[in-house]
Amino acid sequence: MSNSTTSPDDDVGPAADSAAVELTIELGQTDLDRAVAEQLRPGALIALEEFSDDPVAIYSGSKVVGRGEVLLIDGQLGVRITELYGSAMQQV
How far apart are CA 12 and CA 7, in angstroms? Predict the structure, then answer.
């Protein structure tokens, strides 16, 4: 008979470290009148309220876990993390 105690974290092994995490990057947002939104077609341009050099929000689920800056990396969009909030990396 064992006298050892375990915590809930004891069941978390390497598999938990390799679990996929979905991050969402919010580039910006804007409000459109319904009539304007209904007229949108392919090729339409939508101006965002943010400026091109403003930081973007990084979400895990519905929680903002950091901020970053948009980069072009070998022809693909990327984000350089500039801030992480609290223990964000343990929560994502």
Answer: 10
Q: What is the mean pLDDT of residues 69-88?
A: 89
Q: What is the pLDDT of residue 89?
A: 53
Segment 42-74, tens digit of pLDDT: 999 998 887 878 899 999 999 999 999 999 999
As a residue count, the chain comes to 92
d(CA 59, CA 32): 23
Domains contained in the chain, CATH given: 22-91 (2.30.330.10)
Structure tokens at 55: 């930081």
